[in-house]
C-alpha cells in the first residue's frame, strides 16, 4: 500500500515537472523585465512552490523552486530599489538578446544594403550623371570644387557645429523611424528605402573614388558613417521584423505575433537612438577635424568599427549561448 502511494506521488511529481518545466527554465534563463510580467511570473512560481512544499517537501523540485522564487523576489526588490538598473538591464541583456533573436533579419538587411551599395558604386562609375540625379548639381559641383582645391571633404567643414549636430541627429532619427513604421506594409517600403540608401552611399563613394580619394572616403566619412550606417541597417531590420511578424506568424495567432514583432521592433529602435545621437555628434563636430587631428578621426573610426562588430554581432551570440548553456544545465538538474 505504501509502495503504491509512493509510486503515485513520484508520478504526480513527474507530471508536475513536465507541465511547468519550460516556464521555469524560461523565467530563469530570460527573466521578465516589465513589472507586470515579473509580478505574474513571481506569483505563478510562488504557487508552484506552495504546491511542491505540500506534496514533495523534501524533493529537488521544491529546493529548485525555492531558489527560483528567491531569485525572482530579489530581482523585483532590486528593480523597485534602483530604477537605474532597468536601463542597465536593457543595454546589457534585453537589447542584445532581442538583436540576436533577429540576427537573420539583420543579415538580410545588411546584405540588401551592401548589394545596392555595390550597384550604386558601379552604375555611377559607368554614368557620371547618376551622382547629379541623386545629390543635385549644386552638391556635386561643390564637392568637385573642393577636390580641385585639395580639400575633398570640405563639405563637412561648413556650418555651425552644434546646429549641424542637432539637425543631422533629428533628421536621421526621423528617417530611421520611417524605416521602422514602413515595415507594417509587409516590409516593402522599408526594403525600398534601405536599398535607396545603400545605392546613395555607393554613389557617394564613387564620387570620391573617381578622383582618387577612395581610401580617404572610408577614413573620413566613416568617422560618423560607421555608426550612422549601422543604425540605418538596424532600423531597416526593425522594419522587417514588424512586417515579418504579420506576414509569417508561425504557430501563433497573427495578432499575437504582430504584437510581439512590434514590441521587439520598438526595443530595437529605442536602442539605436543613442547611436544616431553619437553619430550625428561625430559628423557635426569631429569629422571636420580630419585634416587637423587625423589621429583622432582614425581612432574614432576604428573604435566605432570594433564596437559595432562586438555589440551587434559577437556579444549577442555570446550572451545567447551563455543563457542556453545555463538553461540546459538546469534542465539536466531537473
UniProtKB/TrEMBL annotation:
InterPro entries: SpoIIM-like. It holds the Pfam family SpoIIM. The chain crosses the membrane at residues 105-123, 162-188, 200-223, 229-247, 268-287, 293-313. Keywords: Membrane, Transmembrane, Transmembrane helix. PANTHER family: SLR1478 PROTEIN. This is Stage II sporulation protein M. It comes from Niabella yanshanensis.
Amino acid at each position: 500500500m505504501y509502495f503504491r502511494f509512493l509510486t503515485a506521488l513520484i508520478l504526480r511529481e513527474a507530471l508536475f515537472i513536465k507541465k511547468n518545466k519550460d516556464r521555469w527554465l524560461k523565467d530563469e534563463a530570460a527573466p521578465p523585465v516589465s513589472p507586470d510580467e515579473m509580478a505574474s511570473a513571481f506569483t505563478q512560481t510562488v504557487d508552484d512552490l506552495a504546491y511542491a512544499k505540500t506534496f514533495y517537501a523534501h524533493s529537488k523540485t521544491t529546493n529548485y523552486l525555492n531558489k527560483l522564487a528567491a531569485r525572482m523576489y530579489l530581482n523585483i526588490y532590486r528593480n523597485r530599489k534602483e530604477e537605474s538598473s532597468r536601463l542597465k538591464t536593457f543595454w546589457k541583456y534585453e537589447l542584445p538578446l532581442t538583436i540576436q533573436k533577429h540576427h537573420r533579419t539583420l543579415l538580410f538587411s545588411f546584405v540588401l544594403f551592401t548589394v545596392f551599395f555595390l550597384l550604386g558604386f558601379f552604375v555611377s562609375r559607368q554614368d557620371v550623371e547618376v551622382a547629379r540625379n541623386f545629390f543635385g548639381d549644386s552638391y556635386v559641383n561643390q564637392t568637385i570644387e573642393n577636390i580641385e582645391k585639395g580639400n575633398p571633404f570640405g563639405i563637412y567643414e561648413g556650418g555651425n557645429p552644434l546646429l549641424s549636430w542637432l539637425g543631422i541627429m533629428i533628421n536621421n532619427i526621423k528617417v530611421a523611424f520611417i524605416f521602422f513604421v514602413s515595415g507594417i506594409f509587409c516590409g516593402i517600403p522599408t526594403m525600398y528605402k534601405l536599398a535607396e540608401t545603400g545605392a546613395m552611399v555607393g554613389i557617394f563613394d564613387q564620387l570620391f573614388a573617381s578622383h582618387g580619394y577612395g581610401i580617404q572616403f572610408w577614413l573620413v566619412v566613416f568617422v560618423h558613417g560607421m555608426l550612422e550606417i549601422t543604425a540605418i541597417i538596424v532600423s531597416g531590420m526593425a522594419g522587417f521584423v514588424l512586417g515579418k511578424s504579420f506576414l509569417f506568424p508561425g504557430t501563433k495567432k497573427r495578432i499575437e505575433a504582430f504584437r510581439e514583432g512590434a514590441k521587439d521592433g520598438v526595443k530595437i529602435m529605442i536602442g539605436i537612438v543613442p547611436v544616431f545621437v553619437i553619430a550625428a555628434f561625430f559628423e557635426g563636430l569631429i569629422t571636420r577635424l580630419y585634416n587637423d587631428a587625423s589621429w583622432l578621426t582614425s581612432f574614432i573610426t576604428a573604435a566605432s568599427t570594433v564596437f559595432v562588430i562586438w555589440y551587434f554581432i559577437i556579444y549577442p551570440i555570446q550572451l545567447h549561448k551563455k543563457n542556453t548553456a545555463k538553461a540546459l544545465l538546469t534542465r539536466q538538474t531537473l
